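Lab notebook, bench 4. We co-purified these components, and the gel suggests they stay together. Before we commit to crystallization screens, I want a quick structural picture of the whole thing.
Request: model the full complex, all chains together.
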Amino acid sequence: MWLLVVFVPAVPWAQPAPIAYQVTFPEPQHHWMQIEMTVTGLGGAPLRARMSRSSPGRYAVHEFAKNIFALDAFDGAGKKLPYTHTDVDEWQVGGHDGTVKVVYRIFGDLADGTYFGVDTTHAHMNMPAAFMWVSGLENRAIRVTFVPPDGTSWEVGTQLFPTADPYTFTAPNLQYFMDSPTEVSAFIQSAFSVTGPDGVPAQFRLVVHADVSQGDVDELAKLVQRLVREEAAVYGEFPKFEPGYYTFLLDYSAWTAGDGMEHRNSTLITDPDIRLRTTEGRRAALDTIAHEFFHAWNVERIRPVGLEPFDLTKENITCCLWLAEGFTQYYGVLLQDRAGFGQMGPVAGLGGYATAVMRGSARRLRSAVQMSEYAPFADAATSIDPTDSNRTFISYYTYGAAIALGLDLSIRDKTAGAASLDDYMRLLWQRFGKSAEMRAGYVGRPYSLKDLRDTLAEVVKDKAFADDFFDRFIEGHDVADYARLLERAGYTVHPRNPDVGWAGSVQLRTDSGGLQIMAPVPFDTPAYDAGLDLDDVIATIDGQPATEAAWAALSRRKPGDAVPLTIRRRDGKVVQRTLTLKSDPAMTIDDLAGAMSAEQKAFRDAWLGSRAR
Ligand SMILES: [Zn+2]
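Here is the predicted assembly.
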């Protein structure tokens, strides 16, 4: 066989040197690290170094610049350069010789899916929280070297591309780099391969930082194999993971904060309460793993307009977290059932989302799309002024999971089992997700709300059905007919306490003068209709002093009962009000179990049964 070798000379001006980071941890016990960022080939313009304000997968701003200190800048000859702090998160360095090295220290003590934390056990890095970058050079390649503290056996776990040096990694561009959380510690690994439904194998590894043995991690890996096989059965194939494998970064060490964050070729999951030494603990870990791995398709590659490319300088708003997060929530529960783990069960897990949305008055104020657009104020967002989100917001996780349940059952119902939500997800993958493989860090074809509607019409071959579903349940304020749909799968939905008097969900605290209302009172409740709200003090209930026991006793009365209240307002005025109780809107779902018809059993098996086996 002839082998033709073509020598291509290097063209230095065509490929500028990567932006190079050197990361050291001189005093991990003091919770700071040092980063040196070297940028060459700058020409004459000042370097604009900046920190991110947001992080992929999080929707509020976090102002990561606040933890930077001891910042210095140097030119290529090592001469110290002056700099100006031009914006809250931007530093400009001029007067250089084409090369600038920025050196800074950064404090961090929160090991979760968004922030940075370092201590004597690990350095846990979400890149936007730790790494400065250069405005205008977002498409330059990046090379990063981690230098573990002296005397440690720390290694590096990440979806970044490996090199011959086990401590040096690369990224093709800023988007990929910022999406690549990195755990540097004495972790335990377990690697495995799973053949996809299309016959193509995918490689996986668990990177576990916790007080566990290799045997525990290998046992967890066996469970994860079953799960990822079931997840791939929805889509018909695994994505092509860019460094050649997918990494589960699992940090179950004591000083983490519970979180789970999806990335393109990895997930970062933190939870101090997971105990991998027991079977029960390993099962508990699957809940977040099932959810986050589903994101490898849904949101990382099947990605909505608004998140692509991710803007690190501000909040990112999108139409469709009800699908990106809510449908992922739905499948996270469903796929555990299909894989035979079923720890939540469809009634407690999936039905609970439906009943929460059915009774939640907030959906009359914001549609699922508008709940998604509220994410920058709800997703780990902090402000000091109060909001009334307790009565105007339903999480797009809950709302979206309820929509997924309604849509899955509606498609099965309409097509007599010929199609399901799996077919919808698979078509979204084929239309929008697969093109993502063209360029690491970017999605080829982000979807719009209209794309989602059109794709549904294609799956069910009925445009009117898709329009009706989107108009009413996604852009409108209705809920699917869960009672009828779940009955097809052998479940009955009915009011939990139809004969019990209900005043509404009111947060109360015992006050010297009675009961003080501690949060905005939800709309469409007897308490709201009676004119009660935040900071009112209920002085008497039915002529008796207001106590928590007296308030709880309202549930022993009947719907329709009128209860006189005395209220003291903020201004000190005392007013009389009448609380007219309604029927408790709480719904409950029962399993017909042995009483199911053959048709119901077949419907349920097709829905909850394994597709991978
Ligand atoms: Zn998620």
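The CA atoms of residues 387 and 520 lie 8 Å apart. Worth comparing against the SEC data before the next meeting. Residues 1-12 have pLDDT under 50 and may be disordered.
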